[in-house]
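User: Sequence in, structure out. Go.
Assistant: Echoing your sequence, followed by the structure tokens.
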Amino acid sequence: MEYSGFMLVLGGVLPCLGLGLFCYLLKLLLGFKGDNLEQEEPQYVREINRKLNLNNVETERDLS
């Protein structure tokens, strides 16, 4: 039985796309769970720390 080139391309590309989507969703899930584990600080403290890190600001805690 002969397969057309189109079917062969689909057979090669679709599994790769599925695997890539699975890895991306797994990465998002792990990142989401990691964010939920950091509940010892209030949300506003995490936002301030994130903004400080984006601006590369050194705080007293970083210097000690």
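User: And one key feature?
Assistant: The CA atoms of residues 25 and 31 lie 10 Å apart.
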